């Protein structure tokens, strides 16, 4: 049961090899084996989206994918979003617009939005709301998340140079 | 420069945004993992427990028989009608609800622990489960607990003197038979704990996703039978609580016991199924209410028979009285109720324990009072807003028939502002037009009070054995001029640290960035009660203000000596002690440095350390919600088109945070009103154990709110702020459901239950269509 399988993958731009139990989910692999605990588990059955990461650029529920299935893939997690201390425009917009309260769902929403905006930078407001309805948040009532993603989309289209963070 | 009143981005956020928050599961490194074997049945006698054969090194399993010296969780309510029942850490002899923990497995990984737990065979002689009010209260019903032969754990009764006479004088008596189905708070992070034993000191540190760390420590030490000082409880970043994480749960008792027994570190992270099955439920209530009105639409008397299904146990520390007694005590809400007869029972059943959930009883009682106003208006031919005008409390302080004292509020003004903002006549025109097109729009109003920030007097009145309420704060400025504020309260997503930093910044004249608020660690904070009941901004805020004022006084005294002026001439502002009208100014860090390193100059105790304590009587926030919906009569689906909130929470310390609390609360209220329902089948199996079955709303179901503020200042809050954590959830269901009822008025459909799911709405329409030939024939 615990015979491990060796895989190679890229995580947040760093190439690495990992030895993973076949039954380990990608989420558990990221959290427990790679110590990337920014990816959260809210349900482990594919509904809440707290575990959303990007696999080859696409938002994926990492609780529904085995770690070994990421062999050869490029995985991006919330830890890879900021450029050092410079927040990603999505993070900056979530901060300025109070798009988070407890913060538990936040990494999933950030990665979901990042993937969706990379695929289509010109989403309409309805499309943004529709995409964001894939994930659950129990704290915010969503309106500030929707607003933050809308504003971040504009910033991202206008080009780089996110503001420096305060912390 | 003042910081109060500014929508300062939260100091908590950068780390959370970067994925550097540390929730309980992020503390499990190096721990053995724990999984519970749980009862598959709702009720029965345990005949035996067969443990799996375990290879050496393959883990361990423990049952109640192993827990020597461990007591039961038995919260106290000093009322003659209260029946105390004890909750064992692991079931002993019998099981009383499905999902009750019976055995615990410990292994190297979570998966191995789960494998082990699955192999535990619990041999149970089943009993017919008692799941509902009817079953529990039936003649000769089996007692769920021998301590409560009638299946009633707590009961409130009251009848005012003039009640009978008032009812006799009524022009009309309106009857309501309303139901709120069982619901869950569903924090996105489930429960969990990591307990580690320190070989050097013999102490245990429990990191757990909880709202009341100090209380948990007291309760755990008592039940496990250890000195409280040998236990440290830490609430790290907590992924939402909403009341569900207040209680002392058996799982935490087991974790602390295991850490001591095995002298190691053990971790249990609940899965979502366990969270639905065995954490805590709420809202399972049935209200039968009669309102006696005069011909002018004045409420003369209220007659209430209230039942709350409190499940199998009484939650510690607030007890199973929390829902039934709050329902009983606060039913009148924002209305003048001259005479009252009330009976409220907390009924025990073979279901998961009831515990507080955001709003506690008030979503249901607001739904009740607001349906009452609507139905009375209809019966008397009055406008539904007008009848509220005639009944809302307008003079303060107001004393309700149950003895609740209301401080200054703006019930009537908030409603008028909301009604004006919405433009009701324009809506009625839209509604009439839509009906001609076969579309059904509705408008719903909800006016309510939110009792917040109450201290020991209120809890003592409830007879609670453990009387919560006050808060203490310790404040210190270090030699570099930074401030540390240690609070007994324990925020988990509310942004309290930022709001308190704003308060301190204004008192001491430093920027909020220099104020670090420390919470959620029993080793690092003064004893306090945590975060619940919309209390932290008012009570921890008040205590913080007192501590900060004392620190400011000391800084001024030092500054006065250093600048050789009178103390009264010094002000603290923007990082300096200044003497207005002169060019004298000293940087605050210089004062801090001097306080520590030149203390001999001032004749004062060295350093800057102060404390604050606050134990207020409580203050009421109030609001009016108005909701516009469209009901699809083919599917029963409800779309919310507009949602307006006029909120009066006194002075807003950080308006952005306040609006966030309202928006999040309303979203939960919408879910409670329309979608969320925990369902047991007849055998007591919980059918809703995933987020695909139990449906919190998504971004598609929750509209953007229009939020307006009013500001009534109450002497009951030293910061002039009122609590605002629960209001959204209290008021929204009534607004939504009144709107649905309004939309369906042409069909004569009555909305008497929450949630009003599409299935239930569709069924109600069809039943009315069959019964009432005048309704459209083809529905
Ligand atoms: S944890 Fe993966 S969807 Fe909920
Ligand atoms: S911020 Fe708490 S769940 Fe979204």
Describe this structure in a few short sentences.
Chain A: Residues 5-81 form the 2Fe-2S ferredoxin-type domain. The complex is a heterodimer of chains A (167) and B (779). Chain A has 167 residues and is an alpha+beta fold.
Describe this structure in words.
Chain A: Pfam families: Fer2, Fer2_2. Chain A: Its EC number is 1.17.5.2. Chain A: Keywords: 2Fe-2S, Iron, Iron-sulfur, Metal-binding, Oxidoreductase. Chain A has 167 residues and is of the alpha+beta class. Helix content of chain A is 32%, strand content 15%. Chain A has a five-stranded mixed beta sheet, with helices on both faces. In chain A, helix 2 (89-96) crosses helix 5 and helix 4 (125-132) crosses helix 5. Chain B has 779 residues and is an alpha+beta fold. Among the domains of chain B are: 409-452 and 621-779, Aldehyde Oxidoreductase, domain 4 (2-Layer Sandwich); 470-614, 2-Layer Sandwich (Aldehyde Oxidoreductase, domain 4), CATH 3.30.365. Chain B contains 19 helices and 29 strands. In chain B, helix 9 (362-380) runs parallel beside helix 18 (727-743), helix 15 (536-563) crosses helix 16 and helix 17 (655-674) packs across helix 18. Chain B starts with 12 loop residues before the first helix and ends in an 8-residue tail after the last helix. The mean pLDDT of chain B is 95. At the A-B interface, helix 2, helix 3, helix 4 and helix 5 of A face helix 1 and helix 17 of B. The structure holds FE2/S2 (inorganic) cluster (2 copies). Residues 41-44, 46-51, 61, 63 of chain A line the site of one FE2/S2 (inorganic) cluster (FES). One FE2/S2 (inorganic) cluster is lined by residues 41-44, 46-51, 61, 63 of chain A.
Mean pLDDT of chain B: 95
Query: What's the name of the CATH homologous superfamily of the largest domain in chain A?
Result: Beta-grasp domain
CATH level 1 name of the largest domain in chain A: Alpha Beta
Number of helices, counting only DSSP H or I runs of 4 residues or more of chain B: 19
CATH topology of the largest domain in chain A: Ubiquitin-like (UB roll)
How widely separated are the two ends of chain A? 45 Å
Greatest contact pair? A-B, 57 and 59 residues
| CATH architecture level-2 label of the domain at 409-452 and 621-779 in chain B | 2-Layer Sandwich
Query: Could you give the order of strands across the largest sheet of chain A?
Result: 2-1-5-3-4
Can you tell me the CATH topology of the domain at 409-452 and 621-779 in chain B? Answer: Aldehyde Oxidoreductase, domain 4
**How many E strands of chain B?**
29
- For the record, what CATH class of the domain at 409-452 and 621-779 in chain B applies? Alpha Beta
Estimated structural class of chain A? alpha+beta
Listed once per kind, the bound small molecules are: FE2/S2 (inorganic) cluster
């Amino acid at each position: 049961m615990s015979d491990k399988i060796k895989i190679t993958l890229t995580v947040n731009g760093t190439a690495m090899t990992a030895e993973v139990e076949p039954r380990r989910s990608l989420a558990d692999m990221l959290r427990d084996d790679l110590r990337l605990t920014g990816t959260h588990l809210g349900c482990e059955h594919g509904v809440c989206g707290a575990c959303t990461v990007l696999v080859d650029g696409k938002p994926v529920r990492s609780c529904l994918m085995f770690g070994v299935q990421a062999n050869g893939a490029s995985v991006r997690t919330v830890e890879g979003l900021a450029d050092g201390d410079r927040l990603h425009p999505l993070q900056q917009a979530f901060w300025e617009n109070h798009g988070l309260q407890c913060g538990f769902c936040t990494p999933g929403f950030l990665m979901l939005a990042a993937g969706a905006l990379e695929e289509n930078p010109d989403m309409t407001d309805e499309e943004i709301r529709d995409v964001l309805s894939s994930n659950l948040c129990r704290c915010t009532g969503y309106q500030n998340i929707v607003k933050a993603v809308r504003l971040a989309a504009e910033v991202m289209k206008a080009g780089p140079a996110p503001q420096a963070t305060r912390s | 420069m003042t910081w109060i009143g500014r929508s300062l981005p939260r100091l908590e956020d950068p780390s959370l945004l970067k994925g550097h928050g540390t929730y309980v599961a992020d503390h499990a490194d190096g721990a053995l993992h724990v999984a519970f074997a749980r009862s598959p049945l709702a009720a029965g006698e345990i005949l035996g427990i067969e443990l799996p054969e375990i290879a050496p090194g393959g883990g361990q399993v423990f049952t109640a028989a192993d827990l020597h010296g461990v007591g039961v969780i038995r919260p106290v309510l000093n009322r003659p009608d209260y029946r105390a029942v004890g909750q064992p850490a692991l079931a002993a002899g019998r099981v009383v609800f499905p999902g009750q923990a019976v055995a615990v497995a410990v292994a190297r990984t979570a998966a191995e622990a789960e494998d082990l737990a699955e192999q535990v065979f619990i041999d149970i002689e089943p009993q017919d489960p008692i799941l509902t009010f009817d079953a529990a209260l039936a003649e000769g019903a089996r007692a769920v607990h021998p301590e409560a032969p009638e299946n009633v754990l707590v009961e409130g009764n009251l009848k005012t003197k003039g009640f009978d006479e008032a009812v006799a004088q009524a022009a009309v008596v309106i009857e309501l038979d309303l139901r709120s189905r069982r619901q869950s708070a569903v924090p996105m992070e489930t429960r969990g704990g990591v307990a580690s034993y320190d070989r050097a000191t013999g102490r245990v540190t429990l990191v757990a996703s909880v709202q009341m760390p100090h209380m948990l420590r007291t309760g755990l030490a008592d039940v496990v039978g250890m000195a409280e000082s040998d236990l440290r409880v830490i609430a790290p970043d907590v992924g939402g609580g909403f009341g569900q994480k207040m209680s002392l749960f058996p799982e935490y008792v087991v974790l602390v016991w295991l850490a001591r027994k095995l002298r190691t570190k053990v971790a249990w992270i609940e899965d979502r199924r366990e969270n639905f099955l065995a954490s805590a439920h709420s809202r399972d209530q049935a209200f039968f209410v009669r309102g006696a009105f005069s011909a002018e639409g004045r409420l003369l008397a209220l007659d209430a028979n209230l039942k709350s299904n409190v499940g199998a146990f009484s939650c510690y520390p607030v007890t199973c009285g929390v829902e039934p007694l709050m329902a009983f005590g606060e039913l009148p809400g924002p209305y003048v109720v001259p005479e009252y007869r009330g009976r409220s029972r907390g009924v025990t059943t073979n279901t998961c324990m009831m515990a507080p959930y955001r709003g506690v009883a008030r979503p249901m009682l607001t739904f009740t009072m607001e349906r009452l106003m609507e139905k009375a208006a209809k019966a008397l031919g009055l406008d539904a807003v007008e009848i509220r005008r005639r009944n809302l409390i307008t003079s303060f302080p107001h004393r309700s028939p149950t003895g609740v004292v209301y401080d200054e509020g703006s019930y009537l003004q908030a409603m008028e502002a909301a009604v004006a903002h919405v433009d009701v006549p324009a809506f009625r025109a839209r509604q009439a037009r839509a009906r001609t097109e076969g579309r059904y729009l509705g408008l719903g109003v909800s006016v309510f009070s939110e009792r917040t920030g109450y201290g020991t007097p209120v809890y003592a009145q409830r007879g609670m054995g453990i009387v919560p309420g006050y808060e203490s704060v310790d404040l210190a400025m270090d030699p570099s001029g930074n401030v540390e504020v240690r609070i007994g309260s324990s925020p988990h997503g509310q942004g309290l640290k930022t709001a308190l930093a704003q308060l301190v910044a204004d008192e001491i004249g430093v920027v909020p960035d220099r104020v670090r608020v420390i919470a959620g660690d029993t080793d690092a904070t003064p004893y306090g009660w945590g975060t619940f009941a919309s209390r932290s901004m008012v009570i921890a805020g008040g205590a913080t203000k007192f501590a900060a004022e004392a620190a400011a006084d000391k800084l001024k005294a030092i500054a006065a000596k250093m600048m050789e002026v009178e103390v009264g001439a010094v002000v603290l502002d923007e990082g300096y002690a200044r003497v207005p009208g002169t060019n004298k100014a000293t940087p605050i860090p210089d004062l801090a440095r001097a306080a520590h390193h030149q203390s001999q100059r001032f004749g004062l105790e060295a350093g800057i350390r102060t404390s604050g304590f606050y134990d207020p009587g409580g203050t009421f926030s109030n609001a009016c919600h108005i909701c516009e919906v469209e009901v699809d009569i083919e599917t029963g689906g409800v779309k919310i088109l507009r949602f307006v909130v006029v909120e009066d929470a006194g002075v807003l310390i950080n308006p952005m945070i306040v609006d966030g609390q309202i928006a999040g609360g309303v979203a939960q209220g919408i879910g409670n009103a329309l979608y969320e329902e925990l369902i047991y089948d007849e055998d007591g199996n919980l059918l809703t154990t995933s987020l695909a079955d139990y449906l919190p709303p998504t971004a598609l179901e929750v509209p953007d709110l229009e939020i307006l503020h009013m500001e009534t200042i109450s002497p009951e809050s030293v910061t002039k702020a009122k609590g605002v954590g629960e209001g959204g959830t209290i008021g929204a269901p009534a607004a939504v459901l009144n709107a649905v009822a309004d939309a369906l008025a042409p069909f004569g459909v009555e909305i008497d239950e929450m949630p009003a799911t599409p299935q239930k709405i569709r069924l109600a329409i069809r039943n009315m269509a069959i019964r009432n030939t005048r309704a459209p024939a083809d529905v």
